[in-house]
Amino acid sequence: MQSFYDFAGPLLGLGAEPKDLTFAQTSLRGVIIFLITLVMVRLSSKRSLAEKTAFDAIFIVILASILSRAVNGTAGFFTTIGCGLILVFLHRSFSWVACRSHAFGRLLKGRPDVIVENGKPLLDMMRRNLISQHDLEEDLRLDAKVEEISTIRRARIERSGDISFIKN
User: Fewer beta carbons below 10 Å: N end or C end of the chain?
Assistant: First the structure.
């Protein structure tokens, strides 16, 4: 192990202060973290990249934040990679449990709410989800391709934050 550290240390600037890292060391760190991140994301789930829920978006943001520290040298290189792997394992484990437990899935990812019923906006539910009438009308035009809310049987704000429409 010591011979590996003796070889990799100067190449990666292991133990160096962030301000002392060279362009080549930072670039090599970036390439290595890029490749390792590809493996980590493949170990995670395809949905995490789609950022379908806050759970997935938070995972991606935190993983990126943690791994950036390995590139810029503000945290230990291998320690940071290890932390990233733990986050991937945690995300995958929580996703596995959420897939098998509806209650845990709702806790972790939230639940959809009906915001339109039989062509009538449910204003209390819209307010609870911070959706204005203008937001609803915009999504109605863009996603449902209609102008009139009366043509919608049901609309939901999904766990992802998207609005889905079921036409009459």
Answer: N
**Neighbouring residues of 137: CB distance < 8 A, sequence distance ≥ 6:** 149
* Residues 15 and 91 grouped into a single domain: yes
Q: Domains in the chain: how many in total?
A: 2
- End-to-end distance of the chain based on CA atoms, in angstroms? 67
Angstrom distance (rounded) from CA 109 to CA 84: 21
Considering only CA atoms, which of 77, 109, 83, 112 is closest in space to residue 95? 109
Q: With 80 as the cut, is the pLDDT of residue 78 above it?
A: yes
Question: What value does the mean pLDDT take over residues 89-101?
Answer: 91
Of the residues 72, 92, 107, the one at which a domain ends: 107
Calpha distance 9→16 (Å, rounded): 9
Strands 120-121 and 113-117: antiparallel
Q: Which amino acid is at 167?
A: K
Torsion of CA 99, 104, 108, 114, to 10 degrees: 90
Q: Output the pLDDT for position 50.
A: 63
- CATH number for position 156: 3.30.240.20
- Domain that residue 56 falls in: 2-107
In this prediction, residues 40-58 reach a mean pLDDT of: 74
**Whether residues 85 and 160 fall in one domain:** no
